[in-house]
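fwd from M.: "can u put these together and see what the complex looks like"

so here's what she sent:
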Amino acid sequence: QVQLEESGGGLVKPGGSLRLSCAASGFIFGDYYISWIRQAPGKGLEWISYISARGTTIYYADSVKGRFTISRDNAKSSVYLQMTSLRAEDTAVYYCARESSKEGVVVTRVFDYWGQGTLVTISP
Amino acid sequence: DIQMTQSPSSLSASVGDRVSFTCRASQTITNYLNWYQQKPGKAPKLLIYAASSLQSGVPSRFSGSGSGTHFTLTINSLQPEDFATYYCQQSDAIPWTFGQGTKVEIK
């Protein structure tokens, strides 16, 4: 079955760095885009980045552009999020999610599988 | 960026009730609208895609409608396992954006 598992979260001081990993299994990893989505405590969902299947197309939300870097290793079925210059407002649960195309009245992109999330806390 | 606004932010309902809540986009997104359910401490789960298509395995009491800028998620005959927070998400343009959520609570 499809599984995504995040790791690498923890407590970091403001200005620090952290690298999150997302290990995937149960599907042909190199065929899918992967996104990172975060959720601050008690708040809603915020998409922050995606990487295309071959890693040739990458996008970031403005809130993390220039500070976060997404990458992938298809041989290891893994996606990474390198986070630098961390701020208190980056405190959140970080999810990786598989993006798929689904056909309804339009062909739309969806997050059809999610990991369980990893907590990143930025605090002095 | 496309802003997504959900209303209400929360509602109270009883088992067996029919509930509906809305999601509005700041610009037209045709039918590029998805709905997710999230329970406390869990990852979101895809319910509805392309505004009205039911994801495989999701009970038929869930339905979605709308197009353009105004969308609705309806749950017919609310079940105990449906008490959760529901998010809409547009997939029309990067950055993908979510609504702030509607929390369905037990009355």
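replying to her w this: The mean pLDDT of chain B is 97.
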